[in-house]
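Worked example

This section walks through a single chain of length 198. The input is the sequence exactly as stored; nothing has been trimmed or padded.
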Amino acid sequence: MKHILSPYLPEHATDTVFELIKLYGVNLKIVNERVTRHGDYHRDQNGQHQITVNSNLNKYRFLITLVHEIAHLAAFEKYGRNIKPHGDEWKSTFQRLMVPFIRPEIFPSQLLPLLARHFRNPKASSDTDATLSLALKQFDERSEKNYIFELPYGSNFRIHNGKVFKKGPQRIKRFECQEVSTGRIYLFNPNAEVELLP
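Given that input, the structure is written out below as tokens.
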């Protein structure tokens, strides 16, 4: 199992992650990319703890995602199944499980202060922390995608499902964009990855 995991993780994180997987009896599956999520946790009908993580994540995002999902399992086991999925119990569990990893042997130095800030109050997804998300994205394999915040005002772009939008004004944190075919307005995170159209 460890040799299967190691290509997906920072080198000095593999042993600790492997110990967590054994401790919590995790059945880990590394799966093809899903656009809507990086990973998930559920308990199957046999009571097995099933965690899936997308195979296309860079090793730092893979580590954060895997520990995020193990934190769900650990929080449910400690506090019961009636807690909120991303409530205080999960946050404190996620923080505790991440502490051994937030070190310069594991994460590049430019990520450490961003991780320290993020884990003061972790969000349901690291993508909602735009600063951390953009910093993590620099370790992705280069793609032909652009971020919404980089696009010129009024430009058209396509999202993963083929729908085309026109970029509008920024409203506090998110951008108002109009779906070209229906005229409906949607809000986009500034760090959403899209395809700029000519």
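What to look for: The mean pLDDT is 91.
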